[in-house]
């Protein structure tokens, strides 16, 4: 089985750094087995598609537009993501997850499963550093990713002792 765990987000836009932050947290706390790739993809926009080709399972971590308080998590499966038509793209960096999944469906080789682990952002603006509610949600989102990998039979191995996430953009 090939599994991609990807973080999406702009580290220079406040809470939009959530996806990259969770990826750094995961790689500091766990080792991942063969067949599982864990990557911070930044802001690929419609260039997301090549990273998802030939993956049986895709787990995406990103911020999401949803009702609720900043830092609340939302979990979406593939059918929920594809349920509605794509919305107009507001910038070339808007994640192209729905469009990429639709392209894979059209190609005839879609992922069997998709999980989007999303957090409601508080501040998305030109600044470095996330707000406290999003920072508090990082380990919760990481735990959701770990739970999904365990469900799929690919549990990550905890690092002993765990490392510190490499939040290079805040140095």
- Ends distance: 37 Å
Structural class computed from helices and strand pairing: alpha/beta
CATH class term? Alpha Beta
Relative helix content: 25-40%
Question: What is CATH's topology name?
Answer: Rossmann fold
CATH superfamily, please? HybD-like
Share in β-strands:
15-25%
Biggest pleated-sheet summary: 5 strands, mixed
Whole-number tally of structural domains: 1
- Tell me the radius of gyration: 15 Å
Number of extended strands: 7
Q: Which assembly state applies to the chains in this document?
A: single chain
> Strand order, biggest sheet?
3-1-4-6-5
Name the shape in a single word. globular
Low-confidence stretches: none
CATH architectural arrangement: 3-Layer(aba) Sandwich
With helices defined by DSSP (H or I, 4 residues minimum), what is the helix count?
A: 5
- pLDDT averaged over residues: 92
Description:
This protein has helices spanning 18-29, 49-52, 78-82, 97-107, 132-151; strands at residues 3-8, 30-31, 36-42, 57-63, 73-77, 113-119, 157-158. The N and C termini lie far apart (37 Å). The protein has a single domain, classed as Rossmann fold. The longest helix has 20 residues, at 132-151. The strands form 2 sheets. It has a 5-stranded mixed β-sheet with strand order 3-1-4-6-5. It has a two-stranded antiparallel ribbon with strand order 2-7. The model has no long low-confidence stretch (mean pLDDT 92). It has 171 residues and is of the alpha/beta class.
Features:
171 residues; alpha/beta; Rossmann fold; two-stranded antiparallel sheet; 5 helices; 30% helix; globular
